[in-house]
Amino acid sequence: MTDDHVDYKRRRMLTIATSGLGIVGGTALLVPFAGSMIPSEKAKAAGAPVKVDISKLETGQQITVEWRGKPVWIIRRSQEALDFLPSMVDLLVDPASEKPQQPEYAQNEYRSIKQEILVLVGICTHLGCSPKFRPELVASTDGAFLCACHGSRFDLAGRVYSNVPAPTNLEVPPHMYLSDSEILIGSDEGAA
């Protein structure tokens, strides 16, 4: 074909029309894709802080709540159990909670803001199983939490015993007290 028979106006019109359709089609594909990246209301709620009423929590009892899809345990410890915790130091990997896996306010022998209230993520640090709370053993060297999957043991402060598969203590989630009877799990602004 020679240049004499090429219709440049028609070619230009087809190029513009094709480009326009490509832009419209690309936009039509990108809008739902971009929209799918915005978290749903359910996803937003799952990551939100959780308020927990602990007014009815009695000594030796445990409450389990869900935060970010994980079980969080809240346990009211007895004075006997608290008095027993210092005797565990020689049996533990990280008795002073020095590894950076918990907030600063949990780096003490009780791993809590208030000594009698323990707040832990109920997931073993070995392979993610959920240890079982054994309230009858809170003041013994057998461990207050036992992970049945591989035998890891933790004391009533969530500190891991030596010579078990779990490498670190149970995680203390960020939390703060809104009042003497209410805890906010997932936020610790001003908790210290």
Describe this structure in words.
- With about 190 residues, the protein is of the alpha+beta class.
- The protein has two domains: about 5-35; about 45-185, 3-layer Sandwich (Rieske Iron-sulfur Protein), CATH 2.102.10.10.
- Helices cover about 20% and strands about 20% of the residues.
- The chain is built from three helices and nine strands; from the N terminus they run ααβββαββββββ.
- The chain has helices spanning about 10-35, 40-45, 80-85; strands spanning about 50-55, 60-65, 70-75, 115-120, 130-135, 145, 155, 175-180, 180-185.
- The chain has a three-stranded antiparallel beta sheet, with no helix packed on it.
- A hairpin with a 6-residue loop joins strand 6 (about 145) and strand 7.
- It is elongated.
- The termini are far apart.
- The relative contact order is 0.16.
